[in-house]
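ok so i was messing around last nite and threw this chain in just to see what happens. nothing serious, just curious
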Amino acid sequence: MSMVDRVRQSLDVVFLATLSFGLVIAICAIILAKLPG
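result:
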């Protein structure tokens, strides 16, 4: 496995993690916004 492939794979993992994290935060924000008070 070459260095480029390894870097590309870790970038994919970081990208997916950031994406899911942002999605969870967005969903939480929507739920909190819909709650009364």
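not much to say yet. The two ends are 54 Å apart (CA to CA).
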